[in-house]
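REVIEWER CHECKLIST
Item 1: Sequence provided? yes
Item 2: Single chain? yes
Item 3: Sequence as submitted:
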Amino acid sequence: MMEEIIHLDKQLLLLLNGSESLFLDYVVLTLTNAKTWIPLYLALFYVLWKTYRNNWCEILLILAAAGLCVVLAGTVDDTIVKPLVARWRPTHDPEIGHLVDVANGYRGGNYGFFSAHAANTFSIALFFSLLMRHRLFVCFMVAWSLVNCWTRIYLGVHYPGDITVGLLWGALVGYGIYRLYCRITLPARYDMRYLSVPIVVLCLTFVYSLIRATIITWS
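Item 4: Structure as written out by the authors:
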């Protein structure tokens, strides 16, 4: 049974991985880069700052909770789970590595189970979605996480199974940290005027990835 699941996982990866478009390659390489999303994190900080009106105790508590999401979701994965499970990334897999479409030589580290990108982004997306509870904001945050997941499959550095487990672990961490936060303090009401800022930043970031890919492709 497990062998059949692993085989299906590999076949699905080969079906979804890569494309013939150099333009799309560079869009994905931009979106998968953690530095690309720094403006989003600053926009989320802006929402906290405007909501709490310089109540730094509350702001720091939320930042600590978000940091704990990253530590439990991604750092535990990278330092414990990946070395322990030692499942090859598709790009390094002796069985199918030669079939994987690689973009600009990007192959990632040796091991890929489970996806830290999926766990990190979904834990943050779920934590802030539960915290701020506005439907449009939630949709954009979940979309942000899923786009990050798609980039990892496109680049061939994670199997769909790696992504699925990463999302499940990220959901568990994000929800758990939110419940812990609620035991310490009462969440505030967030104004949609402020939440529109990270939404706009997300849209502009996607536009930036398209413009950057266009410039690189034409140069």
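Item 5: Key structural point noted by reviewer: The mean pLDDT is 94.
Item 6: Recommendation: ____
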